[in-house]
Amino acid sequence: MSSSSHRSRRRDDSDSGYTGSGPQRSVEGWIVFVTGVHEEAQEDGTSDGLTLWMIATYFSLRDTTHNVLHFLRAKDILDTFSEFGKVKNLHLNLDRQTGMAKGYALVEYSSYEEAQDAINNLHGTELLGKTVGVDWAIVKPTASSGSGRGGGRTKLYDHR
Amino acid sequence: MTSMGEDSSHDEFYVRYYVGHRGEFGHEFMEFELSPSGKLRYANNSNYRNSTMIRKEVHLSPAVVEETRRIIQTSDITTIDDSNWTEPQKGQARQELEIKMGNLHIAFTCAEIGSLVDVMNSVDPEGMRVFYYLTQDLRCLMFSLISLHFKIKPIP
């Protein structure tokens, strides 16, 4: 899988996450969705993180360390995705209850090619010790999903 | 992890969340709705300083829909019984959460939860806790999608 020589504009349908409609550009770029992101701080892939965690456990500084580990994890993801272009934005959201990663991430690139490259090269690979799914986040509407599918649910903006 | 190809898995997955109240600045609310097709509708209204209603529509990929489903499935919300929950009082902000998943159709209504203190003081702290964290996690995901895609700042 060379990332630069053949920037294929589409993947095989067999591992494509969407059915036909294709990715949709966002206002300032292209958003990639990452699933299967490691939640557990203790088993963080980076040795820095693990060492830090052990020290923090010893000194009962887990809360602070959560933040630091989160930062390190985000940096690992950022480094990985930066191989395919400049990452304009990264959202690595937390589980509100545990304070650990929720398991997904959003990555924004400026260009379609960068995003497609990242998807082609990182989908199904290991990141922070877990196999991740990498796909488009936003797609164009399909014919059936356009507007007013079957009615019934059209009062979102004017009820109550 | 993103299970693909099984058409049935995307059928009948529907989520709607609403939080709002009527007060000094009119009907202020935030609502999002994810239809089985993957269409996300988002609305946010406040009349504060004459700001106008934000209405947005965007189509989420099956990967995002699947992750939303995973967040709901792992939340224990399907085991919650809200029959003892107190309805929001008049003038109080209300929340609604509606989920259709396969044969399951659940809908919750309760007053806005300001913090965990409200959860602990409620008649059903265990159930309210599940509801509170699930809605927080769903809002978090939808806000990320909306703010990245449209470059607007959703005000929760």
From TrEMBL, chain A:
Q: Which organism is it from?
A: Cyclotella atomus
Q: What residue ranges carry the coiled-coil annotation?
A: none
Q: Which InterPro entries match?
A: Nucleotide-bd_a/b_plait_sf (IPR012677), RBD_domain_sf (IPR035979), RNA-bd_8 (IPR008111), RRM_dom (IPR000504), RRM_RBM8 (IPR033744)
Keyword field contains RNA-binding:
yes
Which CDD domains does the record cross-reference, listed alphabetically? RRM_RBM8 (cd12324)
Q: Does the keyword Cytoplasm apply?
A: yes
Q: Where is this region: Disordered?
A: 1-23
One Pfam family from the UniProt entry?
RRM_1
| Any one GO cellular component localisation term in the record | nucleus
Name of this chain's protein: RRM domain-containing protein
Report the main location listed first in the record.
cytoplasm
* Alphabetized UniProt keyword annotations: Cytoplasm, Nucleus, RNA-binding
Q: What superkingdom does the record give? A: Eukaryota
UniProtKB/TrEMBL annotation, chain B:
The source's superkingdom equals Eukaryota
Q: Which Gene3D superfamilies match?
A: Mago nashi
Keyword terms of this UniProt record: Nucleus
Q: What Pfam families does the annotation carry?
A: Mago_nashi
Q: Return the GO cellular component terms, semicolon-separated.
A: nucleus
Which CDD domains does this entry report, sorted A to Z? Mago_nashi
Give its localization. Nucleus
Where it mainly occurs, coarsely classed, is: nucleus
Q: PANTHER family, alphabetically?
A: MAGO HOMOLOG, EXON JUNCTION COMPLEX SUBUNIT-RELATED, PROTEIN MAGO NASHI HOMOLOG
Q: Which family does it belong to?
A: Belongs to the mago nashi family.
The molecule here is called Mago nashi-like protein
